[in-house]
C-alpha cells in the first residue's frame, strides 16, 4: 500500500489510512452482525422460545425437536450448496444470498400459524445460516495480517453471542407481556433488525477475491483432504455439532420442566450463555497462544462435560455459573476449528474444504435435536439428553490430541502473501507507478 508521492501530502496519506482502517473495522462489525442475524437469530432463537412454541401450538418434545431438525437439516443442505457455489460464485455473493434467505426465514417465522409454516421458516433460517457463516471468516480476515486473524474470527463469534443475549432478554420481556403467543413478536423484531443489517452489509462490505476452487470435488471433500489434520478436525467438528445442540436446544426446557425454574430465570441462564460467547473467542485465542491448539481444544471438550454435569442438579447459582462456562466453550470450539481452516487451508481450498467439514458437522446437528427430543419423551426428563452430550465430549478430547503438531500450534497461515484489503473498494489501495 502506498500514497501518491507526487500528488498527496502527508496529511492526505494519514487521513486515507485512518479512513481505510475505520471502514475496515466497520465492515468487520457488520460481518459480525450478519453472523448474529444468521446464527443467533435464525438458528438459536428456537431454543429460547421453544417452551412458548410448544404451549401455543400444542407440540410434543419429539415434534419440537423436529423443528430444530428442520433448521439444522437445512444448514446441512446449505453447506453442500456453498461447496458447489464456491467454485462458481464470489464468496461475497454467497454471503449476500444467505443474508436475504435468513431474513426471509425470520419474516416467515413471525407469521407462522402452524408447525408446517414454522418448519419452513426454520429451514430457510438454517440454509441462510450456512451461506452466511462459511464465507464470513475468510471475508473478514483477509483485510488483516496473519497475527490478527484469530482476533477477527473471535469478533465474529462475539456477534453471535450478543445476538443470543438480545434474543434471550427480548423473549423474556415479550413472554411477560404477551404470554406464550408472543414468540412471533420475537421473530418479527428480529426480522426488522436483520433487514437493516442486511442492507448495511450489502452496501458496505466488499471482497475482492473471485471464485475459490474448481477442484473441490463432490461436496468439497477433495479440498478437505488436502488440509493437514483434516481427519481429527472433522471428527471434532462433527462431535461438537451433535453434543452442543443436545444442551442448547433443550436448556430452557430442561430448566423449566425438570428443575421448576420460571421462564424469566431460564431466559437468564440462556442470556448468560450468549453473554459469555462474546468473550469465548478472545479467551480461546489467548489460550492457544500460551498452550497450543491441541491442549486448548482438549481442555475445552473436557470442561464441556464437567459443566453439563453441573447443570443436572438444577441449583440456581451453580447452574448460572455453568451456563456462563457453556457460552465460553460454545464460542471457543467452533472459532478455533474455523481458525484452523483459515490457517491451514490454501485460499483455493478454504471454501469447498470448510464446507465439506461443515457438512459433517451439519449431519450431526440434524440428528441431534431429534435424538434429544425422542430421549426426553421416552424418559420424561432431559437428564439423559444432557448426559449424552457430556459423554460425546470425550470423543472431541481424543480428536484434539490427534491434531498434527505443525498445523495445530502454528499461529500464522501456511501461506499468507501480502494482500490489499478485500473489505474496501480496491481504488483506496491503488498505487501509482513512480
Provide structural commentary.
Keywords: Membrane, Transmembrane, Transmembrane helix. This is Major facilitator superfamily (MFS) profile domain-containing protein. This protein has a single domain, classed as Up-down Bundle (Growth Hormone, Chain: A), CATH 1.20.1250.20. It is built from 17 helices and no strands. It has 434 residues and is mainly alpha-helical. The longest helix is centred in the middle third of the chain and has 33 residues.
Shape: globular
Uncertain segments of ≥5 residues (pLDDT<50)? 1-8, 11-17, 411-434
List the total number of helices.
17
Would you tell me the structural class of the helices and strands? mainly alpha
Mean pLDDT: 80
What is the multimeric organization of the chains shown? Answer: single chain
Number of domains: 1
Biggest pleated-sheet summary: none
- The fourth-level CATH homologous superfamily is MFS general substrate transporter like domains
CATH architecture: Up-down Bundle
Rg result:
21 Å
CATH C-level label = Mainly Alpha
Do you know the CATH topology? Growth Hormone, Chain: A
Q: Tell me the fraction of residues in β-strands, as a range.
A: under 5%
State the helicity in percent bands: over 70%
Number of strands: 0
> Could you state the order of secondary-structure elements as H and E?
HHHHHHHHHHHHHHHHH
Distance N terminus to C terminus? 14 Å
Amino acid at each position: 500500500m502506498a500514497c501518491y508521492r507526487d500528488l498527496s501530502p502527508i496529511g492526505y496519506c494519514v487521513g486515507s489510512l485512518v479512513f481505510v482502517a475505520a471502514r475496515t473495522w466497520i465492515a468487520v462489525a457488520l460481518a459480525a452482525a450478519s453472523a448474529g442475524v444468521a446464527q443467533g437469530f435464525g438458528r438459536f432463537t428456537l431454543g429460547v422460545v421453544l417452551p412458548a412454541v410448544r404451549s401455543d401450538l400444542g407440540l410434543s418434545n419429539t415434534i419440537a425437536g423436529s423443528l430444530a431438525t428442520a433448521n439444522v437439516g437445512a444448514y446441512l443442505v446449505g453447506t453442500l450448496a456453498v461447496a458447489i457455489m464456491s467454485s462458481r460464485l464470489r464468496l461475497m455473493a454467497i454471503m449476500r444470498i444467505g443474508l436475504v434467505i435468513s431474513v426471509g426465514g425470520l419474516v416467515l417465522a413471525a407469521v407462522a400459524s402452524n408447525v408446517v409454516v414454522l418448519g419452513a421458516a426454520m429451514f430457510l433460517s438454517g440454509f441462510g445460516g450456512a451461506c452466511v457463516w462459511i464465507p464470513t471468516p475468510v471475508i473478514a480476515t483477509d483485510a488483516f495480517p496473519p497475527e490478527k486473524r484469530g482476533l477477527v474470527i473471535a469478533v465474529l463469534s462475539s456477534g453471535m453471542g450478543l445476538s443470543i443475549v438480545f434474543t434471550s432478554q427480548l423473549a423474556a420481556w415479550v413472554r411477560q407481556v404477551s404470554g406464550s403467543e408472543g414468540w412471533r413478536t420475537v421473530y418479527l423484531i428480529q426480522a426488522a433488525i436483520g433487514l437493516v443489517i442486511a442492507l448495511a452489509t450489502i452496501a458496505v462490505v466488499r471482497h475482492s477475491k473471485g471464485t475459490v476452487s474448481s477442484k473441490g470435488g463432490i461436496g468439497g471433500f477433495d479440498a478437505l483432504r488436502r488440509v493437514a489434520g483434516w481427519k481429527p478436525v472433522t471428527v471434532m467438528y462433527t462431535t461438537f455439532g451433535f453434543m452442543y445442540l443436545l444442551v442448547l436446544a433443550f436448556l430452557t426446557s430442561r430448566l423449566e420442566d425438570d428443575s421448576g425454574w420460571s421462564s424469566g430465570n431460564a431466559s437468564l441462564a440462556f442470556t448468560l450463555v450468549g453473554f459469555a460467547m462474546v468473550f469465548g473467542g478472545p479467551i480461546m485465542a489467548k489460550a492457544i497462544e500460551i498452550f497450543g491448539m491441541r491442549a486448548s481444544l482438549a481442555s475445552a471438550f473436557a470442561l464441556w462435560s464437567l459443566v453439563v454435569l453441573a447443570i443436572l442438579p438444577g441449583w440456581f447459582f451453580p447452574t448460572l455459573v455453568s451456563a456462563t462456562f457453556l457460552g465460553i466453550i460454545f464460542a471457543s470450539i467452533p472459532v478455533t476449528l474455523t481458525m484452523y481452516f483459515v490457517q491451514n487451508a490454501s485460499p483455493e481450498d478454504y471454501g469447498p474444504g470448510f464446507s465439506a467439514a461443515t457438512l459433517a458437522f451439519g449431519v450431526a446437528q440434524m440428528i441431534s435435536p431429534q435424538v434429544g427430543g425422542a430421549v426426553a419423551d421416552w424418559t420424561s426428563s432431559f437428564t439423559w439428553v444432557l448426559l449424552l452430550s457430556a459423554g460425546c465430549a470425550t470423543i472431541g478430547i481424543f480428536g484434539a490430541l490427534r491434531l498434527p503438531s505443525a498445523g495445530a500450534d502454528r499461529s500464522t497461515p501456511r501461506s499468507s502473501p501480502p494482500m490489499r484489503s478485500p473489505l474496501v473498494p480496491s481504488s483506496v489501495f491503488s498505487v501509482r507507478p513512480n
